[in-house]
Predict the structure.
Amino acid sequence: MEQHPLQINTNTTKRVVTVISLFGVVILLLGFLWMYTAGLFMSLNAYIEGEGYYSRYQKDSFTHLIQFVEERDPKYYWMYREAISVPLGNSVARIELEKENPEYEIVREGLLQGRNHPDNIDRIIGLFRNYRNTEFMDTAIGLWEQGDEMVFAIDSTASSAEHTRRPVYQCKPGPCIHFGV
């Protein structure tokens, strides 16, 4: 029996359908991989942005504390308190995230206090919780802990300095001037 020229062989049809189906599956898998990778990069970017705020405000708080200790002007102490609240907020979030069953509202409040954008909070939480035990996150979080220890020590010192109302002397060429603070 002779085959009509427009009639398609069923074996060829099955092969074409199989190849097209495989390409479809590969494209779907690549799409999911791309979405996962893009989400991971967005989470890493959010985390790094948060680290930047932490570092910037930690440095600013130290500067304002030094100004307060040197000049005893209360405005510098309040500038210190405002700046130190950023790393302290992030510290609260980190400590809560380290718990087995963290209270996510506390984490959110801490991250917001840490100046993290509200859209990034879930990304940061997800990155922390899902990748905490990987080498790159363990290293980053270890450095975060060390920074927190410094922040806590400085904040303790600042509280002592704020409550200690000793006279401050300003010495310039010539006699020292006493400011009874």
Summary: The first helix runs from residue 10 to 71. The helical segments are 10-71, 74-97, 104-113, 118-131, 135-163.
